[in-house]
Amino acid sequence: MTTIQFLAQQLLAHNVKHLFCVPGDYSLKILDGFAKEGIRIINTCDEQGAGFAADAYGRLNGLGAVCITYCVGGLKVTNPVAEAFAEKSPVVVISGAPGLRERQKDPLLHHKVKDFDTQLNVFKALTVFATILENPRDIGAQILQAVELALQYKRPVYLEIPRDIVAAEIEIPKNGFSAGFLQSNPKALDEALKEAKAMIESSSQPLILADVEIQRFGLQKELEMLTTQTGIPVCATLLGKSVIAETHPHYIGVYEGATGSEEVCAYFDRSDCLILLGVFMTDITLGSTKSALDMSKCIYATSEKLTIRYHSFEEVRFEDFVKGLLALNIRKSLPKQLPHPPSPLLSRIDENASISVNSFFGLVNSFLSPKTVVIADVGESLFGAIDLVIHESTEFISPAYYASVGFSIPASIGAELAKPHLIPFVICGDGAFQMTGIELSTTCRYNLRPVVFLLNNGGYSTERIFLDGPFNNLLNWNYSKITELLGCGRSCSVKTNRELKEAIEKAMSDRDSFWLIEVMLSSADHSLALQRMAQRIMP
């Protein structure tokens, strides 16, 4: 078996049926080998688009893969890979490279930067495992190690394949790779659960804060059962939005600290037992809260650490702890009054009025269903989407922590290929579109059918609310004409709520191609969430 055959076999074993790429001479044999093994090659317009697509694919499928050429391609994909690392999305990064024989005497081969290890050293900082496949005796074990580490840590790995190694015959490992402790220490787990149970049962107002690791480790059902069984209410972080169906009666909303809903924030602050499950302690998660969390009232469990108050536990798997909490059969009385603040999106909309940020999200909200997945870009697209009601778990995707603008349109490619039964609702601003909107060409090429909402407010709305200036303005494109350029898709530009509603109805009934709906907004209009942030954290 050759290098590429074995790598393809391992990817297919984990349901990776698509490979996102931009071809180059160093990677051509890799792509040809994958195609012959039955993996569908998805050519994007740019390496960053390929990276974002692979990231979204990994979030929904459990593992994604991207292939680029040496340095000129690899260094362009570093930003999406950094995002995947920061937000724990498992992606296998595969790079073609000069052959080992070509490297003798250190020649100046094209695409080389400083030395032949330059790209490898860059990716060592962005992945949990990075190596060059060189020795046929070791390659099989290295591939197994890379895939296992990506799955265990939910983060990217990097494999660099010299082009004279692609078709090399390799030794097949007799045993799999074991990455660290794969089972919890029974005594440590038991002690942690006993301490957690005592803390929860003695509390008067416990609250679960759930974040993205619940989704990454496939614990959505356990979370739903935990809140249903115990009666403990649950809120989510912005990054973890949709880890539980937001129609669940125990769900109280998104917690964003000082920038979030006052009702949710107040309930959070009054809690005497915060059960933090898979939470990233970021400034976005905590909403730039003015005071640090009081860890004396926290049960803090992630894939990397477990602390109960100030007691730390080693060798306890996150999955085992969450499932262990469920097995404790804790029962708490659900508070008579949960903070279900009325959504501003549910207010009556004047169909003849011009579209506002609030009315836009209100109308989009009315079309959400278990058949849709929302993919929100960074900025107003994300902050306005906070109040959307997501019907099923894991139907909302956004880079809410790393916050790389331009994620949404290429991400919709990966999302639709990973979950073809879902309709992507892509929400992006004009600034994000000018970065990666050309990936609609890829959407056309592979007959994908997202509904793209392009919020046109003439520039970078999020920056304007903090500090306005001409540097936040953009050249206004004729966005709705892009379908003429591409020769496929449907598009329109809407100014009133009635026009928007009718456009969405058409997009939902006409599923033969993608739709781009340009939504005209005032540059001075902002979502309630963005206004709250500006009011509470600006000096």
Kindly describe this structure.
- By secondary structure, this protein is of the alpha/beta class.
- The chain folds into 3 domains: 3-162, 3-Layer(aba) Sandwich (Rossmann fold), CATH 3.40.50.970; 186-327, Rossmann fold; 344-533, Thiamin diphosphate (ThDP)-binding fold, Pyr/PP domains (Rossmann fold, 3-Layer(aba) Sandwich).
- Helix content is 36%, strand content 16%.
- It has 21 helices and 19 strands.
- The strands form 3 sheets. A 7-stranded mixed sheet has the order 9-8-7-10-11-12-13, covered by helices on one side. Strands 2-1-3-4-6-5 form a 6-stranded parallel sheet, with helices on both faces.
- A hairpin with a 4-residue loop joins strand 11 (298-301) and strand 12 (306-308).
- Helix 1 runs parallel beside helix 6 (136-153) and helix 3 (47-61) crosses helix 15 (408-418).
- The mean pLDDT is 92.
Largest sheet: 7 strands, mixed
Distance between the termini: 62 Å
Spatial shape: globular
> What proportion of the residues form beta strands (DSSP E)?
15-25%
Number of strand segments: 19
Low-confidence stretches: none
How do the strands of the widest beta sheet line up side by side?
Answer: 9-8-7-10-11-12-13
Estimated helix fraction: 25-40%
The DSSP helix count reads: 21
Average of the residue pLDDT scores? 92
Rounded radius of gyration (Å): 24 Å
Corresponding CATH architecture of the largest domain: 3-Layer(aba) Sandwich
